[in-house]
């Protein structure tokens, strides 16, 4: 089974409270979502492998460390995942960006895929799939399916708020994927929203409601 990790760094938790607050407007919501994504990726990349590299400083020779292993890519699940991309790129500016368009039918809660555009070497990259919300888990599972169908073999799922139902579903269907969240919330309500959650992430990011 994939690992489920809550990143409870005090800065992440403080900023998450700002996002949850219904008084937080679109501008601040966007800024803070990206700040949390940046902090989360900082924590998640602690285990990246390093190798030695010889360089010349202005004074002499030195052996420094360089990130080894696969290159990275960030894959937002549209729309709301876009709200985390800039934060990730602030830390890993050379990462490539793939996009997966997914919307959840409001009545059935079933996910629907409408767009996929990925780096051509997706099979050679470590992927961070980002989406603020993991609710029923349907969208995340369908996004992971879409990636694996195209050759992806190293995927981590990074969400701001997770519901127990969604974590269970992803762990059952994709035990190869580790999940990272800023919070594990209580439950889903009858409309499929996370309680207490932060509302509709896409609408709050883009001001569409
Ligand atoms: C939201 C959210 C996730 C999905 C989570 O997207 O950003 O992608 O719902 O729900 P699930 O785990 O039950 O599938 P939404 O479908 O509202 O689309 P949007 O990002 O375009 O607003
Ligand atoms: N999508 C959201 O944006 N919020 C939720 O609480 C659940 C799904």
TrEMBL record:
The Enzyme Commission number assigned here is 2.4.2.9
Pathway listed: Pyrimidine metabolism; UMP biosynthesis via salvage pathway; UMP from uracil: step 1/1
What activates or inhibits this protein?
Allosterically activated by GTP.
Which residues are recorded as binding 5-phospho-alpha-D-ribose 1-diphosphate?
A: 79, 104, 131-139, 200
Q: Which UniProt keywords apply?
A: Allosteric enzyme, Glycosyltransferase, GTP-binding, Magnesium, Nucleotide-binding, Transferase
Provide a GO CC annotation, any one. Answer: cytoplasm
Please give the InterPro entries that the UniProt record associates with this protein.
PRTase-like, PRTase_dom, Upp_B, UPRT, UPRTase/APRTase
| Catalytic reaction equation(s) | UMP + diphosphate = 5-phospho-alpha-D-ribose 1-diphosphate + uracil
How does the cofactor attach, per the note?
Binds 1 Mg(2+) ion per subunit. The magnesium is bound as Mg-PRPP.
Q: What cofactors does the UniProt entry give for this protein?
A: Mg(2+)
Family annotation (SUPFAM superfamilies)? PRTase-like
What are the GO BP annotations of this UniProt entry? Answer: UMP salvage; uracil salvage
Which top EC class applies here? transferase
Q: What does this protein do?
A: Catalyzes the conversion of uracil and 5-phospho-alpha-D-ribose 1-diphosphate (PRPP) to UMP and diphosphate.
Q: Which PANTHER family match?
A: ADENINE PHOSPHORIBOSYLTRANSFERASE (PTHR32315), URACIL PHOSPHORIBOSYLTRANSFERASE, CHLOROPLASTIC (PTHR32315:SF4)
Q: Which family does it belong to?
A: Belongs to the UPRTase family.
Name of this chain's protein: Uracil phosphoribosyltransferase
